[in-house]
Queue: 2 jobs
Job 1
Amino acid sequence: MSERLTLATSTGLPFLSLAFHVAMGLIALAAGWMALTVRKGGEWHRRSGRIFVYTMIATGITAAGISVYEGKSPGGGLFTAYFVFTAYTAVETLPWAGRRVDIALMVLAFAFAASSYQGGFNALGRPGNQINGVPAGMLFFLATVVLLAAIGDFRMIRAGGIQGTRRIARHLWRMCFGLFIASGSFVAQLAQMKFLPEPFRNVTVIVALGAGPLVMLLYWMWRVRLRQNLRGLMTATPIEARQPA
C-alpha cells in the first residue's frame, strides 16, 4: 500500500494529479456556493452550476485515481461524480445519456451503498470503530444517502421520466449534497490547518462551510417537496420520459 499523497511530499504525475484535484475542488467550492446563493434558474445560477458540475466530476475522478494509487477504494470519488452528474441531468437532458446510462448509474449507486454498509459493519469490529480514519457512523450515513439516491433512480427509470417538483427536488438535493461533499472535504483539512491560507484558519468559518450545504438541502426539500413552493424559481421544461439508448 502506498503512503498518503500530499503536495509537500509527492512529485511527478502524483503531484500533478493531486494539485489538479485540489485546484478543481477549490473552484467547485466557489462555484457551488455561488449557485446556492443566487436566484435559482437565472443566468448566474446556470453558469455557476455548470462550472460546479464539471469541476466536481473532475475532482471525483481524480480522487478515485489517487485512492487507487494509495491502495484504497475509488468508490468515494466515483460516488461524488455520480451525485453531481445525476443532479445535472435532472434539469439538462443530454442526448447520449439515455436509459442505459441511467440504469448503469443506478446499479453503481446500489453497489456503493452495499459496499459502504459492509464497510460500516467491518469498522464496528476494528479499533476506534473506523476504517482508514473514517468512522463507522459516517460510512452508515453515506450508505443510507446513496441508497436513497439509488431508490430515486429506480423510481425515475420505472416511471419513464420525472417532472414537476420531484424533478426540481432531485436536482436541488443532489447538488446540495455534492457541495456538502466538497465542503466536508475542506473541513477535513482542519487536521492540517497549518497548510490552509490564513483567512480560512477560523474554525467557526470552516464548520459553517461544512454544514451549510446540508442546512440548505433540508430547506429546499421542505420548501419544494413538502410545501410544493416554486415561487421565485425560474424553472425550465419538465424532463420527458427517456427512451432506451
Job 2
Amino acid sequence: MQDTRTLLLPTDFPNISRRQIDTLQLNLGYLCNMTCSHCHVNAGPTRIEMMQDSLIDEILRFLDYQPIQTLDLTGGAPELHWRFRDLVKAARLADIEVIDRCNLTVALEHGQEDLLDFLAEHEVTVVASLPCYSEANVNEQRGKGVFEKSIDVLQALNERGYGTDESRKLHLVYNPNGAFLPPAQDQLELDYKKHLFAESNIVFNQLYTITNMPIQRFGAQLLAKGKYNEYMTLLKDNFATSNLEGLMCRSTISVDWQGYLYDCDFNQMLEMPMQLSRELVAGNLIASESNRLHLSEVIKADFEGLDIAIGEHCYGCTAGQGSSCGGALA
C-alpha cells in the first residue's frame, strides 16, 4: 500500500498550540470485525495489535491525576478489547463521560450479545458510523449487508432509550465515499433524521460530518487513482482560519495501543508523536530514547501551551465547515 506520509510532512499549515486537556482518546487496538474503505487506521479482522493490561492500569492512574472530562474509546472496534468494560466502569464511577466509537455491527458478534445493555446501563455515549442513509452507499463503503445490520442495531439502541433519553446519547457519523468534502452538517442531519425515521423508525441526537483524511487506506486510494494532488488542492482551497480555534487537537490527547502520545488520531496513524518540550520535561518527564512520549512518563504533566505537530493533512480538519471527532467546527 502506498504511503502519503512523506508528502504530508512538509507543510505551510499555521502553527497551533494546546489549551488545557479535557479529552483522552484511546486507540485500544486495530482488531475489528469490519474492513471499511475509508478507515484511516487500516483496522480489520486479521489485526493483532491490542493494548496490554499494564497500560490499561496506567490509563486509570492518568484519569486520577488529569482533569479529563471525556474518555473517547476507539479502535478498530474498541468493544473487542478484553478490558473495554473495565475502562468504562472506572471512568463512569469517576463521573467521566465515555464515548464508544462503535461500528454498530460489532454488537452482533459472538460474545457481544449483552453489549447494548452494558452501554445503556453505564450511560455510554455511542458515536456510530453510518456513512449514509442509503443502503447502496453504505454497503459500497463498508461491505455487503452492513446497512441492514446497522439498522437492526440502531433500532435495538432506540429500544434501550438511545436517541430519546437525555443520558443515553446516540450520534451518527457521516464520511464521504469519495474525494470530496462533506455537505453542510445541519442540512444533512435533517435529511438523515427524515429518512431513517420514515423508513426504519430510527431516532438519534446529532450527525457528525467528518472529512476523509489523505492518509492510510484512503490516502493510498488517492495515490492509486492519481487524485492525491487534486484532493489536497480541494482541502487547501477551502481552508477557513476560523476553524483553527475549535480544532480537537487543542484539548485532546490521543494514545495509541502501545501507550505513546499524539496530538490527534490522524497524527498517530502518520507516526507523528507529540512534541517534546522543556515545560513537559520539568513536569517529571523521563525522556525516552525514541523521542516519543509514553503515557506512563507524563501522568502528572501539564500539557497546556505545547506546540502541536502539524502536516498537510491538517487542512482536512480546517476545510469548509471544519472537521473533528465531534463533527463540523463551524
